[in-house]
């Protein structure tokens, strides 16, 4: 068993991030640097939103939840990846693999729902603004956020417990840098075609349908914006919505490719590159996309800097 004498027969072996890459130490340091930026950027965005009463609106509450998801998602993956690389211990226990898979799926599914809810929030704000306070009430927003987390947790529990009990007859080597369902399924010596179909159906429900609803929402938004008389209002709506649409594209694009076509002949390098982009690079970009394109967030940041300067 590779990975040390203390390894259990139930342990998995994570080959790590692009193991054949010659400059792997540089790559891992870059990933750690991106993780630190993502962690601090999302943490700062959460502090700004919850520390400024003017940002206590549904849009920013949802944005703070997105930042919380991204912060936790990167923390689920990168520390273990870095620890394995620098210690040389590439193993992960069966429980550790299941735990990592559960949190990864829970956060990913919750993010699908949060992004859909954010698109709906912008649709109501732009297309039917007079009804916005009634529809997007604090109570409704709180219930929807709770529903996103609960729905993500239930879906993740099902898709973690079931594949973790597939028998593995051969190598327990995972050609990835963390435990992910499509990669785990490939290790099983049992016929998993039925479960693969379940994964595809789940992907349609949690990836394709939300993405379609988001695109439909923004199509209606753009049509409404084009009819606006106010140039200032038009620019503000376009700036906000283009930020959301950028985040949506960066998140849904790679994940739809991974989960809708995981039964095809993906190379491990393709899976790793897409996961690296979607789950590590995108969480770093999200705070930059929202803060640089949003005057309210920039104003809250300036106030925080001002308070720190005075103190």
What tags apply to this protein structure?
311 residues, three-stranded mixed β-sheet, 10 helices
Query: Given the C-alpha coordinates, what overall shape results?
Result: globular
Unreliably modeled segments:
1-6
Query: In what order do the strands lie side by side in the largest sheet?
Result: 2-1-3
The CA-CA distance between the termini, in Å, is 57 Å
* Main sheet attributes: strand count, strand direction, barrel closure: 3 strands, mixed
Strand content: under 5%
Describe the structure.
The protein has a three-stranded mixed β-sheet. α3 runs antiparallel to α5 (138-164) and α3 (94-127) packs parallel to α7. It is globular and about 65 Å long. The protein has helices at 24-51, 58-87, 94-127, 132-135, 138-164, 181-185, 193-226, 231-260, 268-292, 295-310; strands at residues 12-14, 91-92, 173-174. The protein starts with 11 loop residues before the first strand and ends with a helix. The chain has ten helices and three strands. With 311 residues, it is mostly helical.
Q: What is the secondary structure topology, with strand pairs?
A:
Layout: E1 12-14, H1 24-51, H2 58-87, E2 91-92, H3 94-127, H4 132-135, H5 138-164, E3 173-174, H6 181-185, H7 193-226, H8 231-260, H9 268-292, H10 295-310
Parallel strand pairs: 1-3
Antiparallel strand pairs: 1-2
Question: Summed up, what is this model?
Answer:
The protein has 311 residues and is mainly alpha-helical. The protein has helices spanning 24-51, 58-87, 94-127, 132-135, 138-164, 181-185, 193-226, 231-260, 268-292, 295-310; strands at residues 12-14, 91-92, 173-174.
